[in-house]
Amino acid sequence: MGSNLIQKYNIAGPRYTSYPTVPFWDEKGIDYKDWISTVKQAFRESNTTEGISVYIHLPFCENLCTFCGCHKRITKQHGVEEPYVETVLKEWNLYCNEFDTKPRIKEIHLGGGTPTFFSATNLERLINGILAKSEKCDDFEFSFEAHPNNTTKEHLQTLYNLGFRRNSFGVQDYDLKVQKTINRIQPFEKVEEATRLSREIGYNSISHDLVFGLPHQTKESIIDTITKTKELKPDRIAFYSYAHVPWIKGVGQRGYDEKDLPTADEKRVLYETGKQLLGELGYVEIGMDHFALPTDSMHKAMETKSLHRNFMGYTAGKTQLMVGLGMSSISDSWYSFAQNVKTVEEYTELVNRGVIPIFRGHLLNKEDLVIRKHILEIMCHFETSWEKEEMKFPELNDCLEKLKEMEQDGLVIISENGLKLPEHARPFVRNVCMAFDLRLIRNKPSTRIFSMTI
Ligand SMILES: C=Cc1c2[nH]c(c1C)Cc1[nH]c(c(CCC(=O)O)c1C)Cc1[nH]c(c(C)c1CCC(=O)O)Cc1[nH]c(c(C)c1C=C)C2
Ligand SMILES: C[C@H]1O[C@@H](n2cnc3c(N)ncnc32)[C@H](O)[C@@H]1O
Ligand code: SF4
């Protein structure tokens, strides 16, 4: 990939885990009533046919990794576990009270923070509390994020017994200098043990998260990290581009200078090196950041074009309704989005008052719904089409006009009724989406809000 193209297209841009992206949600927010009524509508339309997904945010971590862009709360006090589980179950109750039949659960995902900060017993109490009010779909899929340094055999066995078959471990990078800089000492032996135990217990999809573009990373360190990863043969690998967003409050990125970060060109070399190596090892690029072995269900979902993208990244199964529980969680009813308050204190206070603790949201209008479909298609399948009348919108020609330059640069192929990204253009997928992002186009941000696209 030419470095001039990288320079040209490496601009600040959204990661498109939603459309509209969070900064472009309606400033006025969403009416509590509208939120509830769209959740109920989505539930009525889809609970019997496809079921619903539940995302539970477990925010606590014992130590701060200074590169981390997630919503977390650093503490070593494990006394926070039980009250938090109680509150999440109360919040779930508030939703269940709005449903007129039993929810059928297709997916549960435990994210963080660090779900394995919680004891196995507390995680069991949490999941059993959720399941007490619902039933599982036949083809249910439960997954969780785990920290290799604190995942025990008991965690893995308890969650397996509850139906979890997938997990993902934060690895990030094996180089000691990088690890020291991001305040995260992550020994290979810990990852090896957690991966081996998962396999022995029967997990059928184990994923490792790696990040490129971290401070002090070099081509050699990336090669070494991926070579070590290869020994453990995870079914999936997330290879994230480091998102540098130190201005986001609460994220707490610090501990290194911007000069310690690789330049855009160096970062691209890290990506290309990693991608090539992953390919040689048999991993296939599924979508932005995500690689899987052909035996993994995510790969099959890509082949059958059933891949979906939401706030968790890519998933193999789509549900119309995703209920997000816990502080900072985002829920999606297809017609609207809503996000919970971002501190544990506010979250607990609101739930205890019997209020679903959202603080902002967005009701999608007709245009949003069409654009959202195009962006999902591009992010999940690297192509979209406007052959069907419902996929057309008045500004379509202007959007295509914006893509002319990318077309000349060989990054997108536009035909009469659709467009496609050639394989080599996949790193530029966010740039293509940006041409369709009418809310961004109409309202260019005046301050930095997004990470760089490449
Ligand atoms: C597992 C941790 C999480 C990752 N993403 C999210 C979580 C909980 C969800 C999330 N993080 C941010 C937002 C935007 C809304 C907000 O509340 O601020 C959401 C929905 C903040 C954020 N995190 C990253 C960035 C670049 C931002 C800013 C907004 C944006 O540019 O989209 C970085 C980041 N977080 C995660 C990944 C994988 C990642 C970058 C690759 C995980
Ligand atoms: C859930 C996963 O998200 C990734 N992750 C967390 N913060 C960032 C960031 N700033 N940039 C890129 N990836 C990040 C880590 O790899 C983690 O394991
Ligand atoms: S990377 Fe994981 S363990 Fe580290 S601060 Fe972020 S959420 Fe916590």
What can be said about this structure in brief?
This protein is α/β, with parallel strands linked by helices and 454 residues long. It is built from 15 helices and 19 strands. The protein folds into 2 domains: 110 residues, Orthogonal Bundle (Arc Repressor Mutant, subunit A); 336 residues, pyruvate-formate lyase- activating enzyme (Alpha-Beta Horseshoe).
Share in helix? 25-40%
CATH topology of the largest domain: pyruvate-formate lyase- activating enzyme
Assign the structural class, choosing from mainly alpha, mainly beta, alpha/beta, alpha+beta, or little secondary structure. Answer: alpha/beta
* Largest β sheet strand count, sense and barrel closure: 9 strands, mixed
Strand order of the largest sheet: 9-10-8-7-6-5-4-1-13
Description:
The strands form 5 sheets. Strands 9-10-8-7-6-5-4-1-13 form a 9-stranded mixed β-sheet, with helices on both faces. 45% of the residues are buried. It has 2 domains: 1-20 and 365-454, Orthogonal Bundle (Arc Repressor Mutant, subunit A), CATH 1.10.10; 28-363, Alpha-Beta Horseshoe (pyruvate-formate lyase- activating enzyme), CATH 3.80.30.20. With 454 residues, the chain is of the alpha/beta class. Strand 4 (104-112), helix 4 (120-132) and strand 5 (135-146) form a beta-alpha-beta unit. It has helices spanning 3-9, 32-46, 81-98, 120-132, 153-161, 176-181, 188-201, 219-232, 264-280, 297-303, 344-352, 366-381, 396-408, 429-436, 438-442, and strands at residues 52-58, 60-61, 73-74, 104-112, 135-146, 164-172, 205-212, 236-241, 284-287, 290-292, 308-310, 313-315, 322-325, 330-332, 336-340, 358-363, 383-385, 413-414, 418-420. The mean pLDDT is 95. Helix 4 (120-132) packs parallel to helix 5 (153-161), helix 5 (153-161) runs parallel beside helix 7 (188-201) and helix 12 (366-381) packs antiparallel against helix 14 (429-436). It starts with a helix and ends in a 12-residue tail after the last helix. It has 15 helices and 19 strands. Bound molecules: ligand LM7OVKF4, 5'-deoxyadenosine and iron/sulfur cluster. Iron/sulfur cluster is lined by residues 61, 64-65, 68, 70, 72, 112-114, 147, 170. Keywords: 4Fe-4S, Cytoplasm, Iron, Iron-sulfur, Metal-binding, Oxidoreductase, Porphyrin biosynthesis, S-adenosyl-L-methionine. Involved in the heme biosynthesis. Catalyzes the anaerobic oxidative decarboxylation of propionate groups of rings A and B of coproporphyrinogen III to yield the vinyl groups in protoporphyrinogen IX. Belongs to the anaerobic coproporphyrinogen-III oxidase family. [4Fe-4S] cluster binds at residues 61, 65, 68. This is Coproporphyrinogen-III oxidase.
